[in-house]
Write a structure and sequence with these properties.
The complex is a heterodimer of chains A (360) and B (335). With 360 residues, chain A is α/β, with parallel strands linked by helices. Chain A contains 13 helices and 15 strands. The chains are: A alpha/beta (360), B mainly alpha (335).
């Protein structure tokens, strides 16, 4: 690393929020950050594909970069790999600047592009061998490693058939093997589940999780399929309209979505006519901060600081309001999905609104 | 799985980062692809069949002439390559027409083919210098061209030896080597033009057609066009006025030298016909005292076509440099 970029790196680290540079694991080990992006931005013409992205990935974690199509996920990945230069901001991958030291980064990062392609006339094994040669692996070691990887991804039977006869799922598995040929420390997968049937998706994701565990690699998965991908992610980031509007574990995101209130209780009434009366009644209870009514149904959402379900039920019954349901509302993935992902432009607009509302 | 984990290096990168390893890998892969691909096989078969057929006809004609004349003509071995008949044009004609097609076939899908297959993004994310990709492709194409032209010329030579029983002199051999060299440069021009098209155009069909259109233009229409321009710029009102005729001829000749095809044809003509002593108009006063039909030594022939060679090499370099720069500046996701 040159003196100049060292200075930059130090400056970047000092500007980082406290505690972001290292992360304590459950057993007290300190994990070093392997990918650090600070204020990363990319502009195409007038359009900001990525804006002010701050992202820290720690060793051994699986991070899901989730967002609708066109959110800037692929652009972010290309900047991390040094395949596109950033308009602003800085990136360090294993301490290297991908734009200035692309070979150092590319030899440690395996990248599975969206719609990965292979040389159709070559066999799966030959395709992997080419990658091994490009990485400068000695032939014998390459052959051994490729055999092991083919076993891992379950392609030994088809290894010596031309890729042209492979199914979509087989290609994707070959892609995973291809990414691992270089023994990467970081694996970046761009939409790895695209165009695969549900059983295939499960298989691929299990494989990714297993590889991350056994090969001890850091994995960055980009996807618009929140539901499937989050199962194997330690942390996810919601990426909409070029901005990372939220990140953390799924539980943390639910928490954030709840707007800071620790608890929301869904109250289902028997009759719609009781709604306004119940609303007034519940709002006055101790521990309740806010009550929202669903205009179309007989449901109330009670935001409260502690679990007041027993008190709610008692109060409603005492006033003769029939109660048919009472449950703690969890902000699940569906809410996250509906809030940020769906509806294309409208979804992005909501995402942007959310980003602006997001507390600093 | 355990085997994979076992081979994983512990933390430290064990390989030095050598860019040339990437170039060698790309070169090997491309060379193997070319040599086993139907595209190369079809074109090589076409070039070799037509070339050998032309040489065969030439050899028969020449041996008849030899038998009738009873004495050895100078440079009879070279005539094997330049003699045509009423049924078949000479060997050099086939090389001049078909070899550019080989160059185009080897290069037209070099970059956009990788892009369309989705292999380019995988390729550029490997630890190789980006230019290793385009350099490797060019060098592999060049190797295939060299191989094919050398084999072709040797094959025809062997055929000539067999049919005519005349061995080439050293000078003839050197002239043939020079001919192969010039042809390689010429085909390399078409290869780099095709690579340029494949870098700039998205569809492989579009880049193939564009390169073919350029080839067609220079092979067929450029001569007509240059003639028309010469007529317009320097019209000959009186066919008996030598000044006017000379001016028009000079215009046509010099315009023609913008065309790689004409440059190549003139260079080949000079190399394989030692009697050629001037390219372009020759005034009567310039040939006063010249021995009619006397051959130029190889050095003088080379001197005559040196500008042609320089221009051909320059054209090739310009085309390849344009492809190189375009490729290096391209966004991987540009399309």
């Amino acid at each position: 690393m040159s003196v100049m970029s060292k200075v930059e790196a130090d400056a970047g680290a000092s500007a980082a929020p406290a505690g972001a540079a290292v992360m304590q694991t459950d057993n007290g080990q300190v994990r070093a950050p392997v990918i650090e992006a600070r204020g990363l931005s990319k502009r195409y013409g007038q359009h900001w594909a990525v804006r002010d992205l701050d992202l820290v990935l720690h060793e051994g974690e699986i991070f899901g970069l989730l967002g609708p199509n066109g959110a800037g996920k692929t652009t972010t990945i290309l900047m991390l790999l040094g395949l596109t230069d950033a308009t602003a901001g800085s990136v360090r991958v294993l301490g290297h600047d991908p734009w200035r030291e692309p070979l150092a980064v590319k030899s440690a990062v395996g990248y599975l592009p969206e719609n990965v392609g292979f040389y159709d006339d070559l066999t799966g094994r030959q395709n992997l061998l080419y990658t091994a040669r490009l990485n400068g692996l000695p032939e014998e070691e390459a052959a051994r490693r490729i055999q092991g990887l083919l076993e891992t991804v379950g392609l030994t039977g088809a290894a010596d058939r031309p890729v042209r006869v492979y199914s979509r799922g087989m290609r994707q598995r070959l892609g995973l093997a291809d990414v691992l040929v270089k023994s990467p420390r970081i694996v970046i997968l761009d939409e790895p589940t695209l165009g695969i049937d549900p059983a295939g998706i499960r298989e691929i994701l299990d494989l990714i999780a297993r590889l991350a565990r056994e090969e001890r690699v850091t994995v960055l998965i980009s996807s618009h399929l929140l539901h499937q991908v989050q199962q194997i992610c330690h942390r996810v980031g919601i990426f909409v309209g070029g901005r990372l509007i939220a990140h953390g574990s799924v539980a943390e995101l639910s928490q954030k979505l709840a707007g800071g209130a620790p608890l929301v209780v869904d109250v289902d009434l028997a009759a719609r006519s009781d709604v306004s009366r119940a609303r007034g009644l519940l709002a006055g209870l101790d521990g309740v901060s806010r009550v929202e009514a669903d205009p179309d149904g007989a449901r109330l959402q009670v935001h409260c600081s502690r679990d007041v379900r027993a008190a709610l039920a008692r109060a409603l019954l005492e006033h003769g309001i029939d109660l048919v349901g009472l449950a703690v509302h969890t902000y699940g993935l569906d809410d996250i999905y509906h809030r940020y992902f769906q509806g294309g432009d409208a979804g992005e607009q909501r995402g942007r609104d959310a980003a602006e509302r997001r507390p600093a | 799985m355990s085997s994979v984990a076992a081979t994983r290096p512990s933390g430290v990168r064990r390989r030095p980062l050598v860019g040339s390893a990437g170039l060698a890998a790309v070169y090997r892969k491309e060379l193997a692809d070319h040599l086993s691909g139907w595209r190369f096989l079809v074109l090589a078969a076409l070039v070799i069949l037509s070339g050998v057929a032309a040489a065969y006809v030439a050899a028969r004609t020449l041996s008849d002439t030899l038998a009738a004349a009873g004495e050895l003509d100078a440079f009879v071995f070279l005539r094997l390559y330049t003699t045509g008949s009423t049924t078949l044009p000479p060997f050099t004609f086939f090389v001049a027409v078909l070899a550019p097609l080989l160059g185009i076939a080897l290069g037209f899908d070099g970059i956009n083919g990788e892009r369309n297959r989705g292999t380019l993004s995988r390729l550029v994310s490997q630890p190789i210098h980006r230019d290793a990709i385009i350099n490797g492709k060019f060098l592999a194409g060049l190797a295939v061209i060299t191989l094919m032209l050398a084999v072709l010329v040797l094959l025809v030579g062997a055929l000539g030896l067999q049919l005519m029983g005349v061995a080439p002199t050293l000078e003839e051999f050197l002239r043939l080597v020079a001919f192969v060299g010039v042809s390689i440069v010429y085909v390399a021009f078409w290869l780099s033009l095709a690579l340029l098209c494949s870098t700039l155009l998205r569809q492989t069909v579009a880049s193939a057609l564009t390169a073919l259109a350029v080839w067609l233009f220079f092979s067929l229409f450029a001569g007509l066009l240059f003639g028309l321009i010469a007529d317009a710029v320097a019209p000959v009102t009186d066919p008996l006025d030598p000044q006017q005729v000379l001016r028009r001829t000079m215009w046509e000749t010099n315009l023609g030298r913008l065309s790689p095809t004409l440059l190549y044809e003139e260079a080949v003509q000079t190399l394989l016909n030692p009697q050629v002593r001037s390219l372009g108009p020759l005034l009567l006063e310039q040939v006063v005292g010249a021995v009619a039909g006397a051959a130029l030594p190889l050095g003088q022939s080379l001197l005559l076509i040196w500008p042609h060679l320089t221009a051909l090499v320059a054209l090739t370099i310009v085309c390849f440099a344009a492809a190189y720069i375009a490729f290096m500046r391209q966004e991987i996701r540009a399309w």
